[in-house]
Amino acid sequence: MQAKHNNNKRMKILVVEDNSELRELITQSLEKERYLVEVAADYSTASEKIAEYEYDCILLDIMLPDGNGLDLLREAEKNNRHLNVIILSAKDSVEDKVAGLQLGADDYLPKPFHLSELHARIKSLLRRINWSGNNIVTIANLTINTTSFSVHVNNKHVDLGRKEYDILLFLVNRKERIVEKEILAEGVWGDFIDQADNFDFIYAHIKNLRKKLKEAGAQVEIKTVYGFGYKLEVL
Question: 231 and 177 in contact (C-beta within 8 Å)?
Answer without folding.
Answer: yes
